[in-house]
TrEMBL record:
Gene3D superfamilies, alphabetized: 3.40.630.30
Keyword Ribonucleoprotein: yes
Gene Ontology molecular-function annotations: acyltransferase activity, transferring groups other than amino-acyl groups
InterPro entries: Acyl_CoA_acyltransferase, Bact_Acetyltransf, GNAT_dom
Record GO cellular component, one term: ribosome
Origin organism lineage: Bacteria, Bacillati, Actinomycetota, Actinomycetes, Propionibacteriales
Stretches assigned to the N-acetyltransferase domain: 1-172, 163-331
Keywords, alphabetical: Acyltransferase, Ribonucleoprotein, Ribosomal protein, Transferase
Name of the protein in its database record: Ribosomal protein S18 acetylase RimI-like enzyme
Segments forming a coiled coil: none
Amino acid sequence: MLVRDARPSEYDAVSRLLGEVYGGEQLVHPNYLPALGDTRSRAEDPATDVLVAVDAGRVVGTATLTLPGTRWTEDPPEEAMLRMLAVAPEARRGGVGTALIEECAARARLAGEATLALSTTDSMVEAQRRYARLGFVRVPERDWVTMSGEPLRGYVRSLPSAPAIREARPEEYSAAGQVTLVAYQRGGLLAGTDDYAETLLDTKRRALEASLLVAVDESGGVVIGEAEGTVLGTATYCPPGSPYHELSGPGEGEFRMLAVAPAAQGRGVGELLVRTILRRAHADGHHAVVLSTTAGAHRAHRLYERLGFDRVPDRDWQPVPGLTLLAYRREI
């Protein structure tokens, strides 16, 4: 099962699922059903993400994340909201709803939001239990009544602060290179390829010929060391036409050299960098993202698999004799 952005060819399936769950189970007033069915308008709003859970090519769940600036956000308008969560009856109790909620929370955090809010009806008792289990807190003062007279309960989940993910600035090139080199050295990823260290340190070239991303603690709350400053992690995204492409084919994005400073590990920095790359590749019109990694990068393997990447053994390759790189791929 994979959670990703809904594709135009899936909009009708999303609308049908929402109608079947909310209308068929009489969870909302009938006046709300037309809004549920307007999937295309939500998906085309730049401040709204319509997500789907896909299993064996079929849409088995959906949720909508709205960010400030969209007309789809409820009151108050200036916060991230989880809306229109629905799971097909046959897919329930399989973790689909939880996966959709956690994806919305991760995206809201990546967007710099401090909270994720939602409203639900009194009849959605099972959903309310799930929200409480996933860290949402009832906020009675946020309860409200719809125009059709239906009372809604307010819930809010606090999100941990996230570092800023952006293009590296020239004064950060050296720090990004050092973070990459140290991460590779500590992970034992340079064995037999010591000359690759110079490539890892050549961040200026990556910034010119690809896209050098950094995760930066702009609050100044974490200092990794005098040389690194506030750079917590880095990755290189290979946009169309970049000479840094190694594995990708037509319609595929690619990234390389994901690294997190030792003092910043365990804070979700690597995940935020990968999520940013997935969104960037989607915006570039790609339908998938690929990467290569060493066999010993077990921590990275777990991250990629948790984020929906699959192993593609027939695309494994050797940059130099004796060093096999493992291929991973994720649809977006």
